[in-house]
């Protein structure tokens, strides 16, 4: 049990200061590496930029916990805020908690709780109505902290699909065309297709303009028609008369922002599930040998913004995975293709079921922060997410 009064007088929660804290935060995060059963640890290399996971959000913060007496940094948390829209056109401001870490020597003293309440206060001050985070199923410390102490509810029903880029990928069927669309076309296509989602970001155009976004493509059957890319109105690019089955998708290149690295670590003394988010669940699914993968950091391509229409989507989905794997083969240190879909997404049943495809349940937690209009609770608090847009910036 934590003595919060004495902790308050010994601990300062303040904003990360790049000049002062950069090295120390790097060290702290390395101390929180995740040990796997094979005696290696997973380390997310931020490429010397601890803000790399949040800087794509217009509103973001990184807080550190500092012991007043020794000035030692003992914990860190990141937060960001995004605006999302629901099908009823409601606007929701949602805060996401990312990268919570407390140094092992200072755990179970209330530091984690203090960091979470501080980042929630920052979110509230900046207008967030809900807070969200993802954590690993077996991470008892984190689950207890968020559900017992901070009163978050779990939201199930998201699945992460991973496919290693280890072998040359198969050819794409000659019957299928995969065509890149330009930024304006992508924006207007998403303006139309995102409306099918229960929740989607308001700043899709900003996501598409980010340097990590490699582009947007449309996949369709050649003999079912063609894209009308010359259409005067972007609304007319794809109409039912032009092509009956098609999928739009975009690709985010995480290799440029952060990389996963596996390191040989101490022999495993206990299974400490200190996972941060989905990226930390990736290694077990890669089926790479430890000696293979310990050497150098690697990144992945994230398939996002997937939306399909028509009856014949299976082969199109396969072609998209092959296309993305091929793209990954040409990128330095890229080893995996990943996507995440809600179970209610019509495309979830069309993800290729090959022996090298892995699927992980992703558990999200949420809580209402403000006392505002509760009608939107139906979307966020009903404990199930059906068909939502998965933000590539969250990965
Ligand atoms: C999760 C983590 C941040 C908790 O930090 P902490 O400073 O130890 O947490 P606190 O001392 O504030 O604990 C608050 C509550 O969380 C729960 N909790 C914390 N550690 C726990 C553990 N090892 N086992 C079970 N419950 C635990 C308890 O309910 C605790 O309250 P109590 O001590 O009154 O029982 C820390 O263990 C950590 O850095 N883990 C590695 C990274 C990680 O998993 N981050 C979370 C990703 S979302």
TrEMBL record:
Short name of any one Pfam family annotated for the protein: Acetyltransf_1
InterPro entries (alphabetical): Acyl_CoA_acyltransferase (IPR016181), GNAT_dom (IPR000182), Plant_NAT (IPR052810)
Name of the protein this chain belongs to: N-acetyltransferase domain-containing protein
TM ranges: none
Gene3D superfamilies: 3.40.630.30
Domain N-acetyltransferase as annotated: residue spans: 11-214
